[in-house]
Specification:
Number of helices: 12
Helix content: 40-55%
Number of strands: 12
Radius of gyration: 21 Å
Shape: globular
Order of helices and strands: EHHHEHEHEHEHEEEHEEHEHHEH
Strand content: 5-15%
Structural class: alpha/beta
Amino acid sequence: MTDTLYLDNNATTRVAPEVREAILPFLGERYGNPSSPHHFGGSIEADLTLARNRLASLVGCSPKEIFFTSGGTESDNLAIRGILASHPDRRHIVTTQVEHSAVLVQCRELEKQGFRVTYLPVDSDGGLKIADLEEAIDEETALVSIMWANNETGVIFPIEEISRVCREREVPLHVDGVQAVGKIPVNLANTSIDLMAISGHKFHAPKGVGAIYIRSGFKIKPLFWGGNQERGRRPGTEPVPFIVGLGKAAQLAEECLDHEFDRIRVLRDELEKGFLKKIPEVWVNGGGQPRLPNTLSACFEGVEGEALLMLMDQNGIAASSGSACLSHRLEPSHVLLAMGVPEEIAKGAVRLGLSRYTENEEIERVLEVMPGLVEKARRLSKRMERG
């Protein structure tokens, strides 16, 4: 596995070495419960505070507005269910057609329970029209739930404008910030976002830890009941090692963001230009919109994406066709279909996600082997069509 060229960083990232080092004492001698009354356990509360401060600094909010969770999916559920429980008289939700399954599947379940959901469309580049949002909000709208950046295409939505509309209409705004945090500058002080989901393993923290930002003074009901951890918003003994790791990862992300943003974007652009130059009949998804600097989604016409990914894997290149949460499904991406990509072309989608550990030589290696792999995948697809 050490020879694998890993380009699936939208699915998950490697744990940073500095993060591993920060975690280790809490898997050994510093094993106390931070809620305990004695010093051995209670002293660990200071480590949670440090992690909270570091994450708050990364996203531009007050530490008291950060609440630790198990990750993005829990945070999305807590936000949406918590708002609805706090406003039982409102039965309308506004979201988009291209959200992550943590939001979309939840909204479909809520429709079964009698809620009305408006799914905003996107254009051919994955962009969202503010006018559509303004038209969708009505007197029954309980919340708007829109992602900051798309997990498949990397398209960045105009969150500041979206938050302005929601503030003017006095409608709560929940943002899935899972793909944005740690990859692009996020300053919640410049927005009117009420709640935002964060996932640590998207920016080199361990899997199984994340957070939810809840704007100071904003009231929601918890999903779980129990102790008073996280001030009652998320009860349960805190996973201290993971939270410490999340805090360290946030510190590293903030330190690296300025110089790594441009370096990663240059590598992504080189990859994109190389595909377009060396491989015929390639579509770049979302290329006309602002995108995450690390993300490239491309469709290779005449290719079954799963076959191409298998060939890439055999050649030591790890990538995906879209969301890892839906990787067992063979249907074309709902994101690409919402963008109007023809179904046959959407089946040939590949997503490549870079990280701050991606090197120039790796991009050169991909550009060296991909033309041959795509050609082989096209031959295989034609054979399958002929039966």
